[in-house]
């Protein structure tokens, strides 16, 4: 014996069932056939009873409503009475018994669409995970107190004027600029310094400088040392990085032998 299994869809109410039947028939709500919809609706209720499913009262109320509308449509319509021009009666057009049901179906479809949209938004929101905000105060930089808080522009101007008056009372320092020395003359002075240490003797570059030397004199001294290295009279090296430059005399000549050399600068 073959067992037949029935599976009925679950509907939230009679309007939901009617919308399902209308969509299944692919007809416009305004063009529904009450006779066909009523037959399909009653057939569904009969299937529920055969499967011993509980049929709620609202489904039965809708069945009664459909039968009432169907019976009204089956009743003959009253004949149209033609009136003479002497009579001016106004007859209200009889309302279609389907209108109220159609309005309910349209409204239910609208709210059903809104509910589906909200359900979709709820599902999307369930995929988002949030975290409670933490106290980030320990990681915030400390706000430095304003050093001039409480002071006004007039106070700052007064302090500036006082400092300017104090500076005006200081003695003016006069600087006497020495005559610029040439690389050739400075080279002779460096050779003269080596005469006291002899061949193989060593001098520190810092010994050739003094605190009162100008920037120009320091540069000229460095150029003179480079010239002596170029002439292979001295070698220079450092014991460590950024240490003082050690100069070692390797030449044979005296200071008089360097008096005739030609240097372009």
UniProtKB/TrEMBL annotation:
Which Pfam families is this protein grouped with? SMC_ScpA (PF02616)
Q: Where in the cell is it found?
A: Cytoplasm
Q: Which InterPro entries does the UniProt record give?
A: ScpA, ScpA-like_C
Q: Which GO terms describe its cellular component?
A: cytoplasm
**Cytoplasm listed as a keyword:** yes
> Which UniProt keywords are present, listed alphabetically?
Cell cycle, Cell division, Chromosome partition, Cytoplasm
Q: So which domain of life are we looking at?
A: Bacteria
- BP GO terms, sorted: cell division; chromosome segregation; DNA replication
Main localization, broad class: cytoplasm
Q: How does it assemble?
A: Component of a cohesin-like complex composed of ScpA, ScpB and the Smc homodimer, in which ScpA and ScpB bind to the head domain of Smc. The presence of the three proteins is required for the association of the complex with DNA.
Function, as annotated, reads:
Participates in chromosomal partition during cell division. May act via the formation of a condensin-like complex containing Smc and ScpB that pull DNA away from mid-cell into both cell halves.
**Family per similarity comment:** Belongs to the ScpA family.
Q: Which HAMAP family does the entry mention?
A: ScpA (MF_01805)
What PANTHER family does the annotation carry?
A: SEGREGATION AND CONDENSATION PROTEIN A
Protein's UniProt name: Segregation and condensation protein A
Q: Which organism is it from?
A: Paenibacillus barengoltzii G22
Q: What does the organism's lineage look like at the top?
A: Bacteria, Bacillati, Bacillota, Bacilli, Bacillales
> What gene name is given for the protein in this entry?
scpA
């Amino acid at each position: 014996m073959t067992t037949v299994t029935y599976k009925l869809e679950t509907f939230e109410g009679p309007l939901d069932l009617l919308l399902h039947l209308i969509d299944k028939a692919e007809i416009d709500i305004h063009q529904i056939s009450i006779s066909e919809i009523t037959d399909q609706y009653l057939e569904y209720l009969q299937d529920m009873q055969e499967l011993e499913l509980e049929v709620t009262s609202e489904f039965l109320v809708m069945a009664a409503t459909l039968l009432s509308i169907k019976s009204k449509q089956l009743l003959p319509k009253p004949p149209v009475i033609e009136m003479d021009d002497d009579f001016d009666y106004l007859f209200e057009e009889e309302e279609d018994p389907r209108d109220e049901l159609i309005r309910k179906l349209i409204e239910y479809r609208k709210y059903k669409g809104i509910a589906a949209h909200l359900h979709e938004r709820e599902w999307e929101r369930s995929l988002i995970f949030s975290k409670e905000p933490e106290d980030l105060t320990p990681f915030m930089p400390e706000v430095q107190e304003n050093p001039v808080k409480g002071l006004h522009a007039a106070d700052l101007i007064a302090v500036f004027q006082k400092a300017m008056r104090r500076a005006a009372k200081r003695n003016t320092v006069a600087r006497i600029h020495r005559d610029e020395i040439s690389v050739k003359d400075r080279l002779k002075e460096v050779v003269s310094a080596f005469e006291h240490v002899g061949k193989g003797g060593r001098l520190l570059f810092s010994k050739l400088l003094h605190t009162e030397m100008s920037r120009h004199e320091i540069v000229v001294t460095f150029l003179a040392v480079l010239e002596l290295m170029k002439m292979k009279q001295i070698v220079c090296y450092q014991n460590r990085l950024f240490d003082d430059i050690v100069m070692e005399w390797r030449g044979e000549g005296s200071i008089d032998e360097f008096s005739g050399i030609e240097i372009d600068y």
